[in-house]
């Protein structure tokens, strides 16, 4: 379960956080990169096999940690300009929290304790800190958190699994997750339960995921991605596995109804469901996200939840 900035596109994955339309990079270079010894052709591992099969919580978590630790450098190098250092964007459409205010009205975050789940390089947490909040950035991937250290700032970083949050009950006023953790866990209701536990009464949890309808379509940005190719109701996980059958990347599909039931089943109240429209200024493609598809079908679902 990579609690990280958005993954490299997969059939049900999403791109990195948007920069509000700016294409200028604010990410410092160089990217952290340990020397990699040269490899011969014989040493090269075969490409993972993509399949649909069951994947347990333990297998999903193990695969996600390994995938993000192994791909964080390339991910940050390729997508750092889009992510920026201190923006809070909910999805590839570019919906910015500075405009959406799903966590609370302008000025309301000052002095609040906020947990970011799947923080990656902690871009959202830096934005929260600039708003006067006291954020904590949590991620499963050690390598992603190294990039958070590289960019800098005073945000506390925690390496942990979203299904077992290492915090006391009622530790936070708010929690948020922009494409972090929830798409990659086998039992997302357990993550929501953990979030509810660490929230104070009256707290809010806002999270974004790939819109569930996207699972029925090919992950292609062009016209070939506009025809239904699979059953929306097939919850079989998407798995990439090595030559030994071990999962190296896993995503789990939940229908829109499943997501609602996960929220309610965890004891939270659904306040709003936001489906951002594709804005005219955003002309970029990222994996299966594109202006063509974004103007026709939703790409992101944002769940605004409250702990009563």
From TrEMBL:
Pfam families: Methyltransf_11
CDD domains: AdoMet_MTases
InterPro entries linked: Methyltransf_11, Methyltransf_Superfamily, SAM-dependent_MTases_sf
Domain Methyltransferase type: 115-207
Taxonomic superkingdom: Bacteria
Record's keyword terms, sorted: Methyltransferase, Transferase
SUPFAM superfamilies, per database record: S-adenosyl-L-methionine-dependent methyltransferases (SSF53335)
Gene Ontology BP, a term: methylation
Biased composition annotated in UniProt, kind: Polar residues: 53-63
Annotated PANTHER family: METHYLTRANSFERASE, N6-ADENOSINE-METHYLTRANSFERASE TMT1A
Protein name: Class I SAM-dependent methyltransferase
């Amino acid at each position: 379960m990579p609690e990280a900035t958005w993954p490299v596109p997969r059939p049900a994955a999403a791109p990195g956080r948007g920069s509000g339309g700016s294409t200028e990079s604010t990410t410092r270079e160089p990217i952290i990169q340990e020397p990699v010894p040269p490899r011969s052709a014989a040493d090269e591992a075969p490409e993972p096999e993509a399949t649909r099969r069951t994947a347990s919580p333990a297998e999903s978590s193990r695969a996600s940690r390994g995938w993000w630790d192994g791909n964080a450098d390339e991910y940050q190098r390729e997508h750092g300009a889009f992510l920026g250092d201190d923006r809070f964007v909910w999805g590839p459409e570019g919906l910015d929290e500075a405009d959406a205010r799903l966590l609370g009205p302008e000025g309301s975050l000052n002095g609040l304790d906020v947990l970011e789940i799947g923080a990656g390089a902690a871009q959202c947490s830096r934005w929260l800190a600039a708003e006067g909040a006291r954020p904590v950035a949590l991620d499963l991937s050690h390598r992603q958190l190294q990039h958070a250290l590289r960019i800098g700032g005073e945000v506390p970083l925690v390496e942990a699994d979203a299904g077992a949050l290492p915090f006391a009950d009622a530790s936070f006023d708010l929690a948020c997750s922009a494409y972090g953790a929830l798409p990659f866990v086998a039992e997302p209701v357990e993550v929501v339960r953990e979030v509810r536990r660490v929230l104070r009464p009256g707290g809010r949890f806002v999270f974004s995921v790939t819109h569930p309808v996207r699972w029925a379509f090919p992950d292609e940005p062009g016209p070939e991605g506009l025809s239904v190719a699979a059953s929306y109701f097939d919850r079989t996980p998407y798995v990439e596995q090595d030559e030994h059958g071990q999962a190296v990347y896993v995503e789990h599909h939940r229908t829109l109804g499943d997501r609602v039931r996960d929220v309610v089943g965890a004891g939270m109240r659904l306040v709003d469901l936001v489906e951002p429209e594709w804005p005219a200024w955003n002309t970029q493609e990222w994996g299966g996200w594109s202006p063509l598809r974004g103007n026709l079908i939703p790409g992101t679902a944002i769940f605004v939840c409250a702990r009563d």
